[in-house]
Write a structure and sequence with these properties.
heterodimer, A: mainly alpha, two-stranded antiparallel ribbon, 9 helices, 1% strand, elongated, B: mainly alpha, 74% helix, 0% strand
């Protein structure tokens, strides 16, 4: 009864405890702090998302995620190799490989947990960023005072009146005036033609898409809300994946305990055989009865 | 050598892609910042309008001289008025000068408004400030 805890059981306990403790994280160094600048709000259509994704891809958080992705795929390969080796091995080597297999599974779970943490961090940062952009957009839209609104209405009507009468005024001025068309008018008309051809090229460019959800064009605010929702969904999915990972961890700890039980059982049989007096003595009887 | 190249190829492609997206975004930010003419279009127009009104009201010149000066000012002012009307920097700029300028199209954009109504600038301006030919003809000289 006063027997020492077998080493395999101790290892299993360490393994099970390790699965419940948070992984040692180099992830604290992996950071991404995008700023919700005014320029970002002004970006047309899909550029906003591209700019955010591009900023993320240059961050330390992205680098950490890529590294972890590579390590996870290597770990999966190791697990596959070990599983195949266990099927071929037997005896002590098989137990040793099973132990190693459990260790690798534990490492895999650690990595997956860290991966989930980084993914959640990315999604939460994006949610915060898009929410800040949304509130800035709402603030700028609300920022029009009644006086400013009145001014804008007057400016619009002045411009409309000018556009409606510009051609007529040009004709009258040119026919009545002794001077020719001014340099400004000539240059403006020339530039306007160039601008119009460029604008039509921009409009028909395949990459110049207005923000749209499921093919339906939407406002900037609606597009931002969609991006917030998408990233909140990512956070929710990561939460769900955490449950999967915790079940995997439980299975690994149960496997570790089962492995230790198996080794204990075989140890106990050996011990029982050694403790049986007949096994030793009766075996030696022959030495005594024969002369 | 081949193995190194194949493993580095996706990394290079991703780097090139990132750089291209970066360029695209920088140019888009630059394009978003473009707009608006040089500052001071309104001030320039107001100065020219004041000179034109001074010419109209001046008693120091004969009719022919006044007419030629008005023609020169008119040619200059028509461009300045268009610059103000097209200036994107003035959109929503809630300052007393901008508010006053857009309060009355007929008084601010004198050349456009008068040409639109087929009237001379002087007649148009005097009409807008409430001085008509009939009112002047009906006026009697007297002492207050």
């Amino acid at each position: 009864m006063s027997r020492k805890t077998p080493p395999t059981l101790a290892a299993a306990i360490v393994l099970a405890t390790a699965l419940l403790t948070p992984p040692a994280a180099a992830k604290n160094a992996a950071s991404w702090s995008p700023s919700a600048s005014e320029q970002l709000i002004k970006l047309p259509g899909d550029y906003l998302k591209k700019a955010v994704d591009n900023d993320f891809s240059r961050s330390r958080l992205a680098a950490a995620l890529i590294d972890l992705d590579q390590n996870i795929s290597l770990k999966q390969r190791t697990l596959g190799d070990l599983q195949a080796a266990i099927e071929r091995a037997d005896g002590e080597l098989r137990t040793e490989l099973q132990h190693q297999f459990l260790e690798e599974k534990r490492n895999y779970i650690d990595m997956m947990k860290e991966h989930q943490d980084l993914r959640a961090k990315r999604a939460r940062t994006k949610v915060r960023l898009y929410e800040r952009l949304l509130s800035k957009l709402n603030r700028s839209q609300r920022a029009v005072t009644p006086q400013q609104a009145e001014l804008l209405t007057k400016q619009n009507s002045a411009r409309e009146r000018f556009e409606a009468s510009a051609a007529k005024i040009d004709t009258r001025l040119l026919s009545s005036s002794m001077t020719a068309e001014s340099k400004y008018a000539r240059e403006y008309a020339k530039n306007l033609t160039a601008i119009e051809s460029l604008v039509s090229a921009v409009k028909s460019h395949p990459m110049n898409q207005a923000p749209e959800i499921a093919g339906v064009p939407v406002s900037r605010g609606e597009y931002l809300r969609q991006l917030v929702a998408e990233n909140q969904a990512e956070v929710a999915v990561v939460d769900q994946e955490r449950a999967i990972l915790s079940y995997m961890a439980k299975l690994v700890s149960l496997d570790a305990l089962a492995l230790s039980e198996g080794i204990d059982a075989s140890n106990e049989t050996e011990l029982a055989e050694a403790e049986d007096p007949q096994a030793g003595v009766t075996g030696a009887v022959e030495f005594f009865v024969s002369r | 050598m081949n193995a190194t190249m194949t493993s580095e190829q996706p990394r290079n492609a991703s780097h090139v892609r990132q750089t291209l997206i970066g360029i695209g975004i920088t140019v888009a930010i630059f394009a978003a910042a473009i707009g608006g003419a040089a500052a001071g279009t309104l001030e320039n127009m107001e100065r020219e309008r004041a000179i034109l009104l001074e010419t109209i009201l001046s008693g120091d010149m004969n009719a022919a001289e006044r007419e030629s000066r008005i023609q020169v000012a008119k040619t200059r002012l028509v461009d300045l008025e268009r610059m103000v009307l097209r200036d994107k920097k003035l959109i929503g700029r809630n300052t007393p000068a901008v508010r006053a300028a857009f309060d009355n199209y007929d008084l601010t954009f004198l050349v456009h408004a008068s040409t639109e109504k087929s009237r001379s600038i002087a007649d148009h301006w005097l009409g807008e400030v409430g001085v008509s030919t009939t009112a002047l003809m009906n006026a009697r000289m007297g002492r207050r």
